[in-house]
Design a protein that fits this description.
This protein is of the alpha+beta class. The chain folds into two domains: 4-139, Sandwich (Jelly Rolls), CATH 2.60.120; 143-228, Arc Repressor Mutant, subunit A (Orthogonal Bundle). Helices cover 43% and strands 24% of the residues. Strands 1-8-3-6 form a four-stranded antiparallel sheet. A four-stranded antiparallel sheet has the order 2-7-4-5. Strand 11 and strand 12 (208-211) form a beta hairpin. The protein is elongated and about 60 Å long. The N and C termini lie far apart (56 Å).
């Protein structure tokens, strides 16, 4: 049975409240590449990812897109519109089959106002997202494109099992996706990835992009910040 008890944000809420508020929410599954929220959507509900993965995309008037982030099971989105009652700020698309809980704005606000644990968790999440956006803003303001790419590769990577000192990105991102993440053209990403491969800093394996030489990659990023001074 679908229940808010599945969602980390509500772990500290009593069972009676969980049962009552769960009945006020809607639960739906989305297929791969299906649009979950359009930035023109005038709803104010908050969406919680029960299972799956979504991509948050900012689309500007010229048609260009910037990938803001990706979210997985346990995370939530749409809280900004619920809090400030303004329009949606981005599109959200399912990257694979995804199960979503849609919580009406009124329920979300009630939970935030009456449940201290939920209030603290929401504030902490917003603070973390603000810090991350500040970091990315600084990168766009001060780093050259290639250094933004190096930083994004590190951000996307996870420790590579069985290979101490290496990290990997699986599945490997497309050059188009990387370009959309750092605000550049695919051709620029293609050229820089080729340079990294030539210098044996990254490598492509079956199902992953591997960061083989982290000291060199970090040195390149540090040099980029030094040039920005």
């Amino acid at each position: 049975m679908d229940s808010l008890s599945q969602i980390p944000l509500f772990q500290g809420v009593d069972d009676a409240t969980i049962e009552r508020q769960s009945m006020r929410c809607a639960w739906r599954s989305y297929e791969e590449n299906e649009l979950i929220i359009d930035y023109e959507d005038d709803t104010r509900d908050v969406r919680f990812i029960i299972d799956g993965k979504v991509r948050i995309i900012l689309r500007i008037a010229t048609g260009k897109e910037v990938i803001l982030t990706e979210m997985r099971e346990g995370e939530f989105f749409g809280e900004i519109a619920a809090i400030d009652e303004e329009g949606r700020s981005a599109n959200v698309t399912a990257l694979n089959r995804t199960r979503i809980c849609a919580m009406p704005q009124s329920v979300f606000i009630e939970m935030v106002e009456t449940q201290p644990s939920v209030n603290r968790a929401v504030m902490k999440t917003l603070a973390t997202r603000c810090r991350n956006l500040n970091s990315r803003l600084a990168e766009h303001c001060f780093l050259q494109t290639k250094h933004r790419l190096y930083t994004e590769l590190l951000r996307l990577s996870r420790p590579r099992l069985g290979h101490e000192g290496q990290r990997s990105i699986s599945p490997p991102p497309t050059q188009k996706d990387l370009a959309s993440r750092i605000g550049t053209r695919r051709e620029v990403v293609s050229r820089e990835i080729a340079n990294l491969k030539r210098n044996r800093i990254v490598d492509k394996t079956t199902g992953a992009l591997v960061l083989c030489d982290l000291p060199k990659l970090n040195a390149l990023i540090s040099a980029g910040w030094a040039e920005a001074e």
